[in-house]
Amino acid sequence: MAIVKTASARYQPLGKDGKGQVSLGSGALSEQPYGFNTRFEDKPGTNPEEMIAGAHASCYAMALSFALADAGYDSGELNVDAEVTLEKDGDGFTVTASALSLNAKVAGIEEREFDAIANDAKENCPISKLLNAEISLKYDFSN
């Protein structure tokens, strides 16, 4: 079974003076502005790295939630942040890292078991598999 999700982007005119709009097929994001100034100058709007960070944080939270449930844990809360790093690479740029930060409360689990499940979810969530960058995980844990 293949699941296909869509997004679209428009950008005009060309170069640094251009402005773009990005939309998600679900309609959750519609004609959200992006451009040089939202990517490199922290102006209002989004950028590809921010959207990747959102995708990675939400994918990881869901993967970990399912893995914990499969291990028999059903009471808890997961809060995930992701920081995606974009660095200069020759004449262009490269996404070099995605740093996940997790604050987790999971009733009844020992930290050793949690650590194994959390790191397996980090390695195996679909967005982690997609990214060709260093992916780190740090977490605050309580049971």
Write the layout of secondary structure elements.
Layout: E1 7-12, E2 19-24, E3 32-35, H1 36-40, H2 48-70, E4 76-89, E5 92-106, H3 111-124, H4 126-130, E6 134-142
Parallel strand pairs: 5-6
Antiparallel strand pairs: 1-2, 2-3, 4-5
What does this 3D model show about the protein?
By secondary structure, this protein is of the alpha+beta class. Helix content is 33%, strand content 38%. It is built from four helices and six strands; from the N terminus they run βββααββααβ. The strands form two sheets. It has a three-stranded antiparallel sheet with strand order 1-2-3. A hairpin with a 7-residue loop joins β2 and β3. The longest helix is centred in the middle third of the chain and has 23 residues. The protein is elongated. The mean pLDDT is 94.
Radius of gyration, CA atoms, in whole angstroms = 18 Å
Largest sheet: 3 strands, antiparallel
| Total count of helical runs of at least 4 residues | 4
> How widely separated are the two ends?
36 Å
What class do helices, strands and sheet pairing give? alpha+beta
Mean pLDDT: 94
What's the shape?
Answer: elongated
Find the count of extended strands (DSSP E, 2+ residues).
6
Assign a percent range to the helix content.
25-40%
Please mark out the parts with pLDDT under 50 across 5 or more consecutive residues, or reply none. none
Q: Give the strand order of the largest sheet, numbering strands 1, 2, ... along the chain.
A: 1-2-3
Task: Give the topology string: H per helix, E per strand.
Answer: EEEHHEEHHE
Strand fraction equals 35-45%
